[in-house]
Amino acid sequence: MNFKQSEALEILEHTPAVLTNLLSGLSNEWLNGNEGGDSWNSLEVVAHLIDCEKSNWIPRINSILSSYENAPLPPFDRFSHLGKETGVEELLREFSQSRQQSLYQLGTLNISSLDLSKTGLHPEFGSITLQQLLSTWAVHDLTHINQITRVWLSVMIWTSVHGKHT
After folding, report:
1. d(CA 36, CA 72)
2. I want to staple 41 with a disulfide (CB 3.0 to 4.6 A). Which of 23, 34, 95, 121 is the partner?
3. What one-character DSSP code corresponds to residue 110?
4. Residue 106 near residue 58 (C-beta atoms within 8 A)
């Protein structure tokens, strides 16, 4: 599949509603289940997505658009959300508002096809283009939606074999 900014935007626009439909009104057993170890539960995933909206995607897009080629991208601590999550409804509302604001900001940038080839220096992956960053943003959403449903499957299997999930 070739990258199309409009198709990436479709995913980004729909993610808040998808998460709201998946998570709203669920019991704590579903929301707090994880895959063991240091894996994240559904609440932690949404808290992480909120942090990404505030400190990752738009700041890095702005950096690529306003800097010289391969300027270092702003750092992002992908674990800063841990311990900050609150109730699911509040998290979903905050994510929806943050995403709406990010998409508004993205729209005001009027990104051209030439802009998509501009680069920034990612701390782990080296030189990346704006196109790669936008594509990663959409894939990141899909990966975390998959993570949530994968955890639910684990909870269901665990419960069916062992009784109550711990």
Report:
1. 34
2. 34
3. -
4. yes
